[in-house]
Amino acid sequence: MKLFCFYEQPPECGTSFIALFSDGSGADLFLRADNGDYHNANNDINPPDSHWFADSGYLWFAVLPDDFRLFFEEQAKNEN
Asked: Could you give the angle at the alpha carbon of 55 between the alpha carbons of 44 and 6, nearest 5°?
């Protein structure tokens, strides 16, 4: 799995990714929607832009496979 740096490039639109803390203490799942909005796995944190990640202690991210879906994405799909 290749790691990318938030300072160098943001995740592409339409991708799910793991954001890793710079100190190695943990990671969280996020989605960058097709419209460019960011959402965390619980859909209760919506970072305004890619700078938020670095300001919040995340430095690296790894893109997840295209078929990976966060829970709220599947939930919304099933409601339609």
From this structure: 90
C-alpha span between 57 and 76 (Å, rounded): 30
Q: Is the pTM of this model over 0.90?
A: no
Segments forming the whole domain that contains residue 59: 4-79
Task: Please tell me the total count of domains within the chain.
Answer: 1
Residue showing tokens 């202690």: 57
- Model confidence pLDDT, tens digit, residues 50-59: 999 999 999 9
User: Is there a contact between 41 and 70 (Cβ–Cβ < 8 Å)?
Assistant: yes
Q: What is the DSSP string of 18-40?
A: EEEETTSS-EEEEEE-TTS-EEE
